[in-house]
Design goal:
The protein is of the alpha/beta class and about 160 residues long. The protein is built from five helices and five strands, in the order E-H-H-E-H-E-H-E-E-H. The chain has a single domain, classed as Dehydroquinase, class II (Rossmann fold, 3-Layer(aba) Sandwich), CATH 3.40.50. The chain is about 40% helix and about 15% strand. Helix 4 (about 85-95) links the parallel strand 3 (about 75) and strand 4 (about 100-105). Homododecamer.
């Protein structure tokens, strides 16, 4: 039986306000709508997907740690914590799971302090500035990583 991969989507502070908060920067799409679209893609691929949002750094760290042994990859928008959280960076590094960082706005066109992410160095990839479609791009990236893992597992089984 083929392994069913699981993706954990972690959303940082204020993302629960999407659709209301600064629509000129973040668009009018609500977080629930983004998640519904991601679920469609996961279902088409045969992957499991789970969603988590918190405005609290420690809860995000806890959720990342819970991914160890439970999830196969993480898609994360750490939001404002991207620029300040060594704890989130260290948690991602500690679990060692494929991780894709997403930002809805183009942080490089914004304030200077937003242009440095502590998370990027431990992520497999970063998607910035595509609006809500960035989450779809992250799904494509994560599913590609899963395809590579499947290929390695298949070649290992064939070698035995």
């Amino acid at each position: 039986m083929q392994k069913k991969f699981k993706i954990m989507v972690i959303q940082g502070p204020n993302l629960n306000m999407l659709g209301v908060r600064e629509p000129n920067l973040y668009g009018s799409m609500k977080l629930e709508d983004i998640h519904a679209q991601m679920k469609v893609v996961a279902d088409q691929y045969g992957a499991e997907i789970e969603f988590f949002q918190s405005n609290f750094e420690g809860e995000i760290v806890d959720k990342i740690q819970e991914c160890l042994g439970d999830s196969d990859g993480i898609i994360i928008n750490p939001a404002a914590y991207s620029h300040t959280s060594v704890a989130i960076r260290d948690a991602i590094s500690a679990v060692g799971l494929p991780t894709i960082e997403v930002h809805i706005s183009n942080v490089y066109r914004r304030e200077e302090f937003r242009q440095k992410s502590l998370i990027s160095a431990v992520a497999n990839g970063v998607i910035v500035g595509f609006g809500p479609v960035g989450y779809h791009l992250a799904m494509i990236g994560m599913l590609q990583i899963f395809d590579q893992i499947k290929a390695v597992l298949a070649s290992q089984q064939n070698a035995q």
